[in-house]
Design goal:
mainly alpha, two-stranded antiparallel ribbon, Four Helix Bundle (Hemerythrin (Met), subunit A)
Length: about 190
């Protein structure tokens, strides 16, 4: 397996461990409490992550299929982790309006959210391994803030997105605003059923 693929898998596993630790450190009584009216509670943040991860998994799968499940061999200097991190996904002080399609709706039990998160992480890791030997930079989809990302970069984004929100779960002041405002630009929307 390519070193870059191993790095992506480490990023995904490390981010999930951080998310789980942040959740476990949060007192159960505080998990559904919003720190302020315009900020998400830890369980709402978890729901947002689940919906967003599901959308990323579907998108990566679609990009992989559109590439014909093949591509040229990866160059030796292939490093999607550094490319995504250079765009500073995890700026903890920058507030970002989440697309409407990924905002929490509430009422979903945390254990069900964790089941969805775990299933989608498993699928994303499977896709990452399937795409291992291929350079898929020619196949991309734009992120509303980061611009065009290829399938490997979307996998890294998923990890960094979890890390960002892990910090927010640990910080009761939170950083995600639930503004109901217009999205900065159109983004992909995919329902949870697919």
């Amino acid at each position: 397996m390519n070193d870059a693929t191993l790095a992506i898998l480490r990023e995904l596993d490390g981010a999930r461990a951080e998310l789980r630790a942040a959740w476990d450190e949060t007192p159960e009584a505080d998990r559904s409490v919003r720190p302020t009216p315009d900020r998400w509670s830890p369980v709402e943040t978890l729901e947002h992550l689940s919906v967003a991860l599901h959308q990323v998994v579907r998108l990566v799968g679609h990009l992989w299929i559109s590439a014909g499940r093949a591509g040229p061999a990866r160059p030796a200097d292939f490093d999607p982790v550094t490319r995504v991190l250079a765009r500073r996904v995890a700026r903890p002080t920058e507030r970002v309006d989440s697309p409407e399609s990924t905002r929490p709706t509430g009422g979903i039990p945390a254990d069900r959210i964790w089941e969805c998160l775990d299933a989608d992480l498993s699928r994303l890791k499977e896709l990452t391994v399937e795409m291992d030997p291929f350079d898929l930079r020619q196949v991309h989809f734009p992120h509303a803030v980061l611009g065009p990302l290829d399938p490997h970069e979307w996998a890294v984004f998923a990890a960094e997105h979890e890390r960002r929100h892990s910090r927010q779960i640990r910080d009761p002041r939170g950083l995600v605003v639930d503004s109901g405002g217009a999205d900065r630009q159109e983004t992909f929307t995919m329902d949870r059923e697919s």
